[in-house]
Design a protein that fits this description.
The chain is built from eight helices and 15 strands. By secondary structure, it is an alpha+beta fold. The chain has three domains: 3-57, Structural Genomics Hypothetical 15.5 Kd Protein In mrcA-pckA Intergenic Region, Chain A; 65-128 and 214-245, Alpha-Beta Plaits (2-Layer Sandwich), CATH 3.30.70; 133-211, Alpha-L RNA-binding motif (Alpha-Beta Plaits), CATH 3.30.70. Bound molecules: uracil (URA). Uracil binds at residues 105-106, 109, 190-193, 206.
Amino acid sequence: MSELQRLDKFIASQGTLSRSEVRKMINSGKITVNGEVVKKADGKIRFDDTVCINGQEILYKPYIYLLMDKPSGVVCAVSDKKEKTVIDLIPEKYRRKDLFPVGRLDKDTEGLLIITNDGDFAHKVTSPKTNLYKTYHAIIDSSISEEDVQAFADGIVFKDGTKCRKAFLRQLSWDNHPIVEVKVCEGMFHQVKKMLSVRGKKVLHLKRTAIGNLTLDSILNKRKFVEMDYLAIHGILFDNLHEIYC
Ligand code: URA
């Protein structure tokens, strides 16, 4: 890569420092480019130059893709005056200012969440047109019927007349509080809870277990965060998508 970029802008884009903080570090001689101490914040660098802060190399990454096992009790927002957000939980080594959650899980919903700084990617994941089904496991208050399954397949209609796209519903356990699996390709506010409520079911607990073929267990495997590279996450989410879900 040989594209030119301003040094202060480049460093600020790769971490949590603001451009003025970066300029202070440059003034105090803490930044080197290809081993030479630099004094000018507006100097141009190429993406294959080696830039170090206090001797620590900054590895250039235009985009990052983090998978998170979201716990309940935190909100899906970049910042919030009262509540802890998913962004607050990101470990130091992944922190940078431009990250945001892809789509939204409710405060009390757990499960698989992607965090990125890639807007085009986020749009592709969340757009109903992509047909990328998200899988949820819900603990509900009573068993479902064949009619419920059919109503999900036909498209649930909310009280305000909004019609949901085709969704999949199946029961996974048959005790007092059965577990059902729900697959939806949209992300309307409280969608799964509202769809089940239309069929007279109350959701007691909700967890997102997969986004397309990206599953919580296979990738995170009990870890709270995992970083995936562009090719891996795009491959799992979008390759063969239409063969699988259409
Ligand atoms: N549907 C819901 O009702 N809540 C979520 O958090 C996600 C999908």
